[in-house]
Amino acid sequence: QVQLVESGGGLVQPGGSLRLSCAASGIIPNLYVMGWARQSPGKQRDWVARISSAGGTLYAESVQGRFTISRDSAKNTEYLQMNSLRPEDTAVYYCNIHDISSGMDYWGNGTLVTVSK
């Protein structure tokens, strides 16, 4: 079992920045993909960014060049640095870890990001 706890959400003006953190605890898989997804009211949950245990990254086109995903393996923590935020980035952001060996997915409870004047 893996537990994920997100933090760092809040209210920010358009053009501003936020950094989200996701602390993982429990039995961390050796081979995994960690990522962030977001969900706005009435919409489906969409992937924002992913990072593999080997360090490879992948971004949604809508955040490419503005968001950066990273991880600190020693702390079992991943981050999402969000710059040049737009009102359309407003959503609940969820942290995820996918265990490649077992196929299991684990999710955090989410943190709300609101981009507004």
Description of the molecule:
The structure is a single chain. The mean pLDDT is 94. Strands 2, 4, 5, 6, 9, 10 and 11 form a 7-stranded mixed sheet that branches. Strands 1-3-8-7 form a 4-stranded antiparallel sheet, with no helix packed on it. 0% of the residues lie in helices and 56% in strands. β5 and β6 form a beta hairpin. It has strands at residues 2-7, 10-12, 18-26, 32-39, 46-52, 57-59, 67-72, 77-82, 91-99, 105-107, 111-115. It contains no helices and 11 strands. The termini are far apart. With 117 residues, it is an all-beta fold. The radius of gyration is 14 Å and the shape is globular.
What keyword list fits this structure?
mainly beta, 11 strands, 117 residues, seven-stranded mixed beta sheet
List strands and helices in order, with pairings.
Elements: E1 2-7, E2 10-12, E3 18-26, E4 32-39, E5 46-52, E6 57-59, E7 67-72, E8 77-82, E9 91-99, E10 105-107, E11 111-115
Parallel strand pairs: 2-11
Antiparallel strand pairs: 1-3, 3-8, 4-5, 4-9, 5-6, 7-8, 9-10, 9-11
Helix content: under 10%
Rg, alpha carbons: 14 Å
Output the number of helix runs. 0
- State the distance separating the first and last CA atoms: 40 Å
Beta strands, count: 11
Largest sheet report: 7 strands, mixed
